[in-house]
Amino acid sequence: MHVFLRCSLLCALLLPMSGAIAQKVVMYRCTDAAGALTVQNDVPCPKGSRQERRVIESVPGIATPRVSVPTQPVARQARPASASSTAPPADAMSAARPAIADAERLPPPVLFECRTYDNDRYLSDNGQPPERCAPLTTNGIGGGSPGAGESCQMVSDQCQRIADGALCENWKRRLLEVQSALRFGRRDNRETAQAEVDRVERVVRESTCGM
User: By C-alpha distance, which of 41, 14, 18, 15 is closest to 30?
Assistant: First the structure.
């Protein structure tokens, strides 16, 4: 008995659904004289409106709502440009934006060309380098053979200031010298040599020599 009641109830519920056969619904797209847009079902557009008619399949019992659509299109929000497509490379940015404006650059520091006791020449920003002991060979001391003894004497390098108009040229020459010393110098002195390269590079880059 209980089984029969359950089957009867199930059939009663399914019966309306079996009759839900798709029907044709006529949709009207109406545009009035002011340009306002209205979409409605089974009701033709009012007189004086521009009408577009479309037939669609619909299921009975599901009402198609009446919709009013604004005539002005909604502005599409612009997508932000990705950094990879618009941002210039790091190298280009550093080249376009110098660390110091040209108007704020100062002339490079003074520089000296120095000559050693044996006529070797070098550049230095110190015009009074400390004295150093130059080797001195002694001959026949105490009746000995020539070259039997060796000593040294204190000497000073002679330095001359470089003219202002030639400073940039010689600072760049100085940069090549310290870079060469870093590249080919002793390994145990690389830290000091690198610090000197960084210092001279900064002088050239940030002074009027870098314009």
Answer: 41
Cα distances (Å, whole numbers) of residue 142 to 139, 153, 181: 9, 20, 43
Cα 153–Cα 157–Cα 160 angle in degrees, nearest 5: 160
Residue the block writes with tokens 């520091």: 109
**Per-residue model confidence as pLDDT tens digits over 96-144:** 445 678 888 999 999 999 999 899 999 999 999 999 888 876 665 555 5
For residue 192, the one-letter residue type is T
Alpha-carbon gap, residue 39 to 120, rounded angstroms: 97
If one counts every other C-beta atom within 10 angstroms of the C-beta of residue 123, the result is 19
Strand ranges for the chain from DSSP E: 23-31, 37-41, 50-58, 67-69, 112-115, 121-124, 132-139, 146-155, 158-161
pLDDT of 44 > 80? The answer is: yes
